[in-house]
Every structure is written in structure tokens, then in C-alpha cells.
Specification:
By secondary structure, this protein is mainly alpha-helical. About 75% of the residues lie in helices and about 5% in strands. The chain has a two-stranded parallel sheet with strand order 1-2.
């Protein structure tokens, strides 16, 4: 079968249209989930916004720029995309939130010992994971 999309830009654009619409749709779904994460203590915000940024980066430069220019989350997303690092303050805030919200859940709301151990192990995994991500400040000190 011959691929004529190289000679016909309209066909090439049509082939990209559906994936772009799908990625843009999912980008907004993840932005909405991230917004819910601002309100609900059990739902993370930043991972959803990072996935939204990836969706927009592959589908809509306009929405990707919008997300990167958000006052609070733009710099965090930009740091992650460029250096795979997060600021020390953001790491401490994330760990503190996990300890407070997760610890409160384990102590006050979970009755079964097995579930307490399981949830505690999951929380400790996330704390360990976050603690081992590079600090943005350390990277800028090495460069400077």
C-alpha cells in the first residue's frame, strides 16, 4: 500500500487530528483530576499535572504553554521536564502531607491491622520515592 500523506499535507494533518484531540481531551481530564487534588487530601495534584503536561506537549503547544505558565505549578512542571528534579521545599511539603494525612488515616480511620500495615507500607514507599528525587537547588549549585 502506498502512503500518499507525504505529498498531501491535508491527509497528514488529518492523521494527526484524532490523536491530538484525544491527547488534548486526556490533558484536560488530568488537569481536572489535579484540581480535585487541591481539594481532596487523598488525591495527588502534581503527578496529574505532569501527565497533563505530557499530553499537551504532544498535542497542543497552546495548552502546554498555558500549563507551564501557571503561577504555582508552572515552575514545578518545567523543573521536572527539564531536569527531573523538584525543589526541596516541594519535597518537604509532599512528605509532610503524606505523613499528616496518611498517618491520620492509619491511626484514626483504619481498624484492621493488616490494612494499617499495608497502607503504612504504601505511604513509606511514596515517602522514600519522593525523598530520592534530585533537589533542583543542588543541580543549580553544581551548574553555577
Amino acid at each position: 500500500m502506498v502512503d500518499n500523506t507525504r505529498n498531501n499535507p491535508l491527509k497528514a494533518a488529518g492523521k494527526r487530528l484524532v490523536p491530538n484531540i484525544v491527547l488534548t481531551f486526556f490533558g484536560f481530564v488530568f488537569v481536572a483530576l489535579g484540581a480535585l487534588g487541591l481539594i481532596l487530601p487523598v488525591l495527588p495534584t502534581t503527578p496529574f499535572l505532569l501527565v497533563a503536561a505530557a499530553c499537551f506537549a504532544n498535542s497542543s503547544p497552546r495548552f502546554h504553554d498555558w500549563l507551564l505558565n501557571l503561577r504555582i505549578f508552572g515552575p514545578l512542571i518545567r523543573n521536572w521536564q527539564e531536569t527531573r528534579s523538584i525543589p526541596k521545599r516541594a519535597k518537604l511539603l509532599a512528605i509532610l502531607t503524606i505523613v499528616l494525612v496518611g498517618g491520620t488515616s492509619v491511626v484514626f480511620f483504619i481498624e484492621a491491622t493488616f490494612l494499617k500495615v499495608l497502607v503504612s507500607a504504601i505511604l513509606l514507599f511514596h515517602i522514600f520515592f519522593i525523598a530520592n528525587i534530585k533537589n533542583t537547588e543542588l543541580l543549580t549549585e553544581k551548574e553555577g
